[in-house]
Amino acid sequence: MTTPGARPARRVTTIADVAKAAEVSRQTVSNTLNAPHRVRPDTLARVNAAIERLGYRPDQSARSLRTGERRTIGYLAPVDDPFDPNPLMAGFLEALVDAAGAVGQHVLLLRPAAGEQDVRAVIDGVVAARQVDGLVLADVLPDDPRAAHAARVGIPFAAFGRTGPGLPQHWADIDNAAATAEVARHLAARGHRRVAFVGAATALPWLAARREGFHREAARLGLSLAPAAPAGDLRALLRDPDRPTALATDNDRAALDIYEAARAEGLQVGRDLAVTGFHDTPLARHLHPPLTSLRLPLRTIATTVVTRLLAQLRSDVPAGAEGVELAAELVVRESSAGAAPGS
């Protein structure tokens, strides 16, 4: 008996409905959802169009019970200051959520409890609770304890940053040395002959690669390299009668320090001094003049990391697979666009 005024129950769209609408088998629909790399691009587009048109939503709870998969990726998020967040890693998180969502995955943020430093307990906890299918790591060091422990306990992981020898090589990263070499060529093409590289005094491998790449290319081009200067000595560097006419940095915040030092010395960035940054954070676009900076392909990095992780879950990793090295993009703005002073 139907209750007066009640709406009839809406029929749930099934995988068979999608298969019929797309004129494919149910297995092809399943592959589209779970192993899209196995489906021809034209078929993939047709099935996805049918899924969207019919509003099909897979029963993930039933699938998890059947396969043991959670369709959830754990992201060991770097510790950050909420009042001074790292815009690069915030951008990577956004790209990661989008990349995971595009293949039907969720992202679970993981971090040690306040005051705790040992990430092994976090990894052990999600493994024991079977909360995630695999992990994504970022800011990875060659001897990273997170990567070493994940490999030890056997949970699949992929990384933004290079893992060390003896660890799984499922990573994506940029070629830092090639990126700063492009900066050196950019400055040389604009007539600069005396240049300097400004960066943090740290042994972090990606920062060391940025400095090395710039120095090596500058030397190859015959440029004169002024001594490296930390942010605290910038004004002294700019007072030197033989000061560099162009300064490259390993991050956008260091570039901001140069802007402030130049202003204090009566110099104008983009006219008297060329400056370049790294990361192309929102800061770069809002400086005066806007900052030339190297942009990381965060969406491509995130998609590559997710793809590498899912390939492990499906036992679809080519023998001898290595990490993926990607190129940064030099975004040229007014801070370096003008000719060299006196050129």
UniProtKB/TrEMBL annotation:
Keywords: DNA-binding, Transcription, Transcription regulation. It comes from the Bacteria. This is LacI family transcriptional regulator. Residues 13-67 form the HTH lacI-type domain. Gene3D superfamilies: 3.40.50.2300, lambda repressor-like DNA-binding domains. It comes from Kitasatospora purpeofusca.
